[in-house]
TrEMBL record:
Superkingdom of origin organism: Bacteria
Name of the protein this chain belongs to: Phosphoesterase
SUPFAM superfamilies according to UniProt: Metallo-dependent phosphatases (SSF56300)
Organism field: Paenibacillus selenitireducens
Gene3D superfamilies: 3.60.21.10
InterPro entries: Metallo-depent_PP-like (IPR029052)
Length: 169
């Protein structure tokens, strides 16, 4: 049975992010390879991955090379660093779907790149990236930036179970 995964903010090819976010890599090439390996270690070809933005800083050919090595059906929600390129560019490099706007998943989860305003009385959860190693407090936010998950996509069940655990506390 196929699974659904979430991840954001790989910043493939972005050397500065290693220092900005204290990533444990010596070079961009090492970072790129480790992140691809960790993706493919958990995602099978029949799985679906929602990438919540800021995928790559590389050119079209190098980005396509990475996308085509990654397992799964890949759905990109454009992040602030992705928007300089047209939706068609991202489809051309191999993403199966590209969204310019947030998605509502399973009538309860708002999938966005940047965290959105969530009133504490709202019964929904905003699954997001953008803020990397930071974390918003409260049960309404779930950060899937790579820095929180050892550079590995996480399953929908991990998110759902974490949200349920927060509500029980």
């Amino acid at each position: 049975m196929s699974k659904v995964f979430f991840i954001s903010d790989h910043h493939f090819g972005h050397g500065g992010i290693i220092d900005f976010e204290s990533r444990p890599f010596k070079t961009v090439d090492e970072m790129n390879q480790v992140m691809m390996d960790r993706w493919n270690a958990v995602v099978l070809p029949e799985d679906k991955v929602f990438h919540l933005g800021d995928f790559s800083f590389l050119n079209k050919e190098k980005t396509a090379n990475i996308v085509n090595q990654l397992h799964g059906y890949k759905h990109l929600i454009l992040g602030n660093h992705d928007r300089g390129r047209a939706r068609s560019w991202w489809l051309d490099v191999g993403f199966d779907e590209v969204s310019e706007h947030p998605i509502i998943y399973k009538d309860f989860f708002f999938l966005t790149h940047e965290p959105m305003y969530m009133n504490k009385h709202m019964p929904y959860v905003n699954v997001h990236g953008h803020i990397h190693g930071q974390k918003y407090e409260g049960k309404n936010y779930f950060n899937v930036s790579v820095e929180h998950w050892e550079y590995t996509p996480i399953t929908f069940e991990q998110i759902r179970d974490s949200v349920v655990a927060d509500e029980e506390q």
